[in-house]
Automatic annotation (TrEMBL):
<dbReference type="InterPro" id="IPR018247">
    <property type="entry name" value="EF_Hand_1_Ca_BS"/>
</dbReference>
<dbReference type="Pfam" id="PF13499">
    <property type="entry name" value="EF-hand_7"/>
</dbReference>
<feature type="domain" description="EF-hand">
    <location>
        <begin position="44"/>
        <end position="79"/>
    </location>
</feature>
<protein>
    <submittedName>
        <fullName>CIB1 protein</fullName>
    </submittedName>
</protein>
<dbReference type="GO" id="GO:0005509">
    <property type="term" value="F:calcium ion binding"/>
</dbReference>
<keyword id="KW-0460">Magnesium</keyword>
<dbReference type="InterPro" id="IPR002048">
    <property type="entry name" value="EF_hand_dom"/>
</dbReference>
<feature type="domain" description="EF-hand">
    <location>
        <begin position="89"/>
        <end position="124"/>
    </location>
</feature>
<keyword id="KW-0677">Repeat</keyword>
<dbReference type="InterPro" id="IPR011992">
    <property type="entry name" value="EF-hand-dom_pair"/>
</dbReference>
<dbReference type="GO" id="GO:0000287">
    <property type="term" value="F:magnesium ion binding"/>
</dbReference>
<dbReference type="InterPro" id="IPR051433">
    <property type="entry name" value="CIBP"/>
</dbReference>
<keyword id="KW-0106">Calcium</keyword>
<keyword id="KW-0479">Metal-binding</keyword>
């Protein structure tokens, strides 16, 4: 199944849900069904937040560090010259995110910290269809 093209996280979504042993991020029909179940209205908050965390963990190390957060911001703002943040703006935004989210102050956001933050966001629940 080819990857959806409209989502700025399309490659990450395919990577997270792909079970291909070739490492090419291709998705089997079963992978596609797994993805649909996670994005469905019936998926729980824990499942949705777990997969969102995995999608945002660009280096697959189990934490969201500064590099992951920078890639996340770039995906959300686009790569165009007019929408790209300056280095100072990016640093300030990442610092703000860490101050809000990094409960244990280790410089990264782990899954439980991520879930704590998004649980307070009505947009995550509404847009993701997550049920608490």
């Amino acid at each position: 199944v080819p990857c959806p093209q409209a989502n700025p996280f399309q490659h990450r979504i395919c990577h997270v849900f792909s079970t291909s042993e070739a490492g090419d991020n291709s998705m089997s029909f079963e992978d596609f069904l797994d993805m649909l179940s996670v994005f469905s209205d019936s998926a729980t908050f824990d499942i949705k937040s777990h997969y969102a965390f995995r999608i945002f963990d660009f280096d697959n190390d189990g934490t969201l560090d500064r590099k992951d957060l920078e890639q996340l911001v770039n995906c959300l703002t686009g790569q165009g010259e007019e929408s790209r943040l300056s280095r100072a703006e990016m640093e300030q935004l990442i610092q703000n995110i860490l101050e809000e989210s990094d409960i244990d102050k280790d410089g990264t956001i782990n899954l439980s910290e991520f879930q704590h933050v998004v649980s307070r966001s009505p947009d995550f629940a509404r847009c993701g269809g997550a049920q608490q």
